[in-house]
Design goal:
- It is a single chain.
- The protein is 39% helix and 17% strand.
- Helix 1 packs parallel to helix 2.
- The two termini are 20 Å apart.
- It is an alpha+beta fold.
- The longest helix is centred in the middle third of the chain and has 13 residues.
Length: 71
C-alpha cells in the first residue's frame, strides 16, 4: 500500500524513546489531518495524550501490531 501514489502526503515517524510519540504529536500533530498510531497500547496512549495536551483536532487511526500478529 503506497499512500503517496494515491495523492496523500505521508510522513513516517518511528519513535526513538518513551514519550517520543506524545512529544512529536504535541509539537507537530496540528499539521496533519490524520494521525496513524502503529504500535501497542503504549503508543496509542502517547498519541492520545499528545493530542489532548495541545487540544489538537485530529483523527487517529490505530494499528495494533501485536493483535495483528496474534490473529
Amino acid at each position: 500500500l503506497n499512500l503517496s501514489k494515491g495523492g496523500f502526503d505521508v510522513t513516517v515517524y518511528p519513535t526513538k524513546h518513551r514519550l517520543d510519540a506524545m512529544e512529536k504529536v504535541a509539537s507537530d500533530g496540528g499539521d496533519y489531518g490524520v494521525i496513524v498510531a502503529c504500535g501497542g497500547d503504549g503508543t496509542l496512549n502517547e498519541v492520545v495524550n499528545g493530542v489532548i495536551s495541545k487540544n489538537i483536532d485530529a483523527k487517529i487511526l490505530t494499528i495494533n501490531i501485536i493483535n495483528c500478529l496474534l490473529k
